[in-house]
User: Fold this.
Amino acid sequence: MQDTILQVRSNGSGHKPKPVIGIVSGTLIGPSGPYLEMERTYVNTTYVDAILRNGGLPILIPSSTLLKDGTDALEVCDGLLFPGGEDADPALYGEDPLPVIGAFRRDLDDAALIAGRWAIEQGRPLLGICKGLQILNIMKGGSLYQDISLQEGSYVQHVQKYSRSILSHNVQIVEGSRLAAILGTGTHRTNSMHHQAVKRLGDGLRIAARAADGVVEAIESDDGLIVAVQWHPEDLIDTAPEMNKLFADLVRRSIR
Assistant:
């Protein structure tokens, strides 16, 4: 494994040309041409493209590898990206599943938590997106609304009914936050594809943005390692190019 790490981290002259960004991968079961259904390790291509576009070298970290031998799989990474996915198992924050919750996969949650805890221990930067934000909040001892309808006063449509590249609603970025330094303070328009949200904020975290109805739209850690957003900046390359700054920031923070 060590030889593999050295090959990935070197361009042959002993110098590392780009920060390696590990993307914590999910699994997908589907048809495989004329054959039986197969389970695949995957991430959406837009995550990979966003890292490449902003100067990083993306690699996929399979959940099965994290569950079996997470440390070796992660050692190559200078930073980690936690993408969107299914709902998180509410048992992780002490609740039973309610009828409003969607599908959840405890194995994927456990794999992501292994990666997140390792990154914090090693001082590696993290970027969470949608479910990625939620799992990082849980990792720090926080909880979620299993559905945004359970949050009193919520009225914004948080699951848009059209293309992922469409800008759907406004978020207000908190002045003085790291997110404000990346994107600028004030109001920004984003896409929105989530039905869960932060309820209890995790330890050492602070809110960096909210929607007009008070739903938490971004969080970050006091130590600067975690930046996480509820929207999907990887799908806004053309409609909101400034969102690429989130990936550029991750790559910059990952230079060692």
